[in-house]
């Protein structure tokens, strides 16, 4: 850089300082004071050489919440036999109504049979059968899908259990009767506070505060405040007692509904053409007058 000769040496030093020191310092300070941003990388322009930041606006991303669909309860009971006065509470909180074959019973539901009445309930999907005697009231208390365990609460009366899978417990105020395979009857009377459990086939058990007693085919246990029964000593049914229990159970199998003899439609017979008498129509003669 050249300057006129009349400029003094001191002025030259100041000018050199301004050009070589102060201006780069000012440029550097201006760049460092810029606030940082999260913008995209700067793109230099061809004319100025200064970095010009560019910004990209992204549209908002939609978020979706997946709501699981309701899974219908597949572990319910279905009535396959209803005789006379049978009442059903399909779900807890609902009112009792007259029962009908084909009705479903869900957890918390109840069945009540009156005098000279009975019903049969199939528990799905195992198809375990619960046969309900007259004057009986019970609640379908629990059905556990992972262990295939069903719990009934017998308020009064008598029921038979024909187990087809899993396990089933019957709760009574005296204790819990259990069947693991395959036929058991439980009877409870509140006025006597007595419970009787009969193991008709397979392996059964009864548990109470005193302990647990195991039973096999042809054994029973009866507990009441009047005649307490040690839980460790089940009784063996007498031949006539066992036969009576079997006859009660088999009487359900003999109950087969009679077929409906009423025809669904009546066919009107058509006349037989070969038997029809033909009707001959003779022409009427025409009499012309005589001229």
* CATH architecture type of the domain at 77-253: Sandwich
Number of helices: 2
Shape summary: elongated
Cα-atom radius of gyration: 48 Å
Number of DSSP E strands: 17
CATH class of the domain at 77-253: Mainly Beta
Unreliable spans are 64-71, 256-283
Here the CATH topology of the domain at 77-253 equals Jelly Rolls
Oligomer: single chain
Strand content: 35-45%
Structural class: mainly beta
List keywords for this structure.
two-stranded antiparallel ribbon; 13% helix; mainly beta; Jelly Rolls; 17 strands; 291 residues; 2 helices; 15-stranded mixed sheet
Secondary structure layout:
Blueprint: H1 9-32, E1 40-44, E2 51-54, E3 77-83, E4 86-89, E5 97-98, E6 104-105, E7 110-113, E8 118-123, E9 128-132, E10 136-144, E11 149-162, E12 167-172, E13 175-189, E14 194-208, E15 211-216, E16 219-223, E17 235-236, H2 239-253
Parallel strand pairs: 11-12
Antiparallel strand pairs: 1-2, 3-6, 3-8, 4-5, 4-7, 7-10, 8-9, 9-11, 10-11, 11-13, 12-13, 13-14, 14-15, 14-16, 16-17
